[in-house]
Specification:
CATH topology of the largest domain: Serine Threonine Protein Phosphatase 5, Tetratricopeptide repeat
CATH class of the largest domain: Mainly Alpha
Helix content: over 70%
Shape: rod-shaped
Number of domains: 2
Order of helices and strands: HHHHHHHHHHHHHHH
CATH superfamily of the largest domain: Tetratricopeptide repeat domain
Distance between the termini: 50 Å
Largest sheet: none
Number of helices: 15
Strand content: under 5%
Structural class: mainly alpha
Radius of gyration: 31 Å
Number of strands: 0
């Protein structure tokens, strides 16, 4: 069965001991073992024979079941119809057990990939894992949105913002409530001085999540720095501070705007307080 092992290729991690058993059983099929002159009813998967693993299971099942069922008294004394029924039931159970085992192992592999597609994984490993999940076709829209978000964040860490932007946009399309994707997309726009894009993106973020303090802070910054609109900038920064009093950046920005608006004492008080606070930590460093 050397060729059988080659056929498994990259799927050799799926099946483990089960595949070894299938290979061993399949090798018996070419060893000259006599076949029983019966005509069992095969499960639909054996008729469709969709992939190599299923074909190996279907090839091994009749031989295995011949050995199992031929030992029973009912089989030995039964008519041809009885023997075919017992034989068919055995094959169906064998294939069902194979499929259940394979599904369990696939779930385990997916769980391991899910764990790698998170902030706990290094950048390159995260990108690889998230790409596997994105291309799997097995993710729900909400889960897929998170996969795109994590991969976009990993691209940001590597400085590949041109790749991060479409991932964040796709994440938002799949799940318009995906707060983190809006915020990190706006961070890229701010770094690129694309303040109109910051405002447009933040508008949608706030519409979908009125308590998104970061969106208010980033839109406020865009109003102040990009459009030189201190009034609207202050209003957004004030909301950001009220939604998240621990947002050091929003508080300091509000203080700077207050000073420009002539409210020097208020501004200095906000700035002084901000400097006593810990910096805001983000998911991606």
């Amino acid at each position: 069965m050397k060729n059988g092992r080659t056929w498994l290729g990259s799927n050799s991690n799926i099946g483990g001991p089960l595949i070894a058993t299938l290979i061993a059983l399949a090798s018996l099929c070419v060893s000259g073992t006599p076949a029983m002159a019966l005509n069992p009813t095969l499960p639909q998967i054996c008729i469709d024979r969709p992939d190599m693993l299923s074909r190996m299971a279907c090839d091994a099942a009749p031989l295995q079941c011949m050995a199992d069922t031929s030992q029973s008294l009912e089989f030995q004394q039964g008519s041809e119809d009885v023997k075919n029924r017992i034989y068919s039931e055995c094959i169906a159970k064998y294939i069902q057990a194979f499929e259940a085992n394979l599904k369990q192992q696939k779930r385990q592999l997916k769980s391991e990939t899910d764990a790698r597609c998170s902030a706990n994984a290094p950048g390159s490993a995260l990108i690889t894992a998230c790409t596997e999940l994105i291309q799997s076709g097995d993710e729900t829209p909400v889960k897929l949105a998170r996969d795109y978000f994590w991969r976009g964040g990993a691209y940001c860490v590597e400085g590949k913002t041109d790749l991060a932007i479409p991932d964040f946009i796709e994440s938002i399309r799949l799940d318009p409530t995906q707060r983190d994707s809006y915020n990190y997309l706006d961070k890229i726009y701010i770094d690129r001085d694309q303040y109109d894009d910051v405002i447009k993106n933040a508008n949608v973020a706030i519409l979908n999540d009125p308590k998104n303090a970061i969106a208010y802070r980033q839109r406020g910054l865009a109003y102040v720095v990009g459009l030189h609109d201190l009034g609207r900038g202050y209003a957004d920064l004030d909301i950001a501070v009220k939604l998240d009093p621990n947002d050091r950046d929003a508080l300091e920005m509000r203080g700077l705007v207050e000073k420009k608006l002539g409210r020097v004492a208020d501004g200095e008080r906000d700035i002084a307080k901000a400097h006593t606070m810990k910096p805001v930590h983000t998911v991606f460093r």
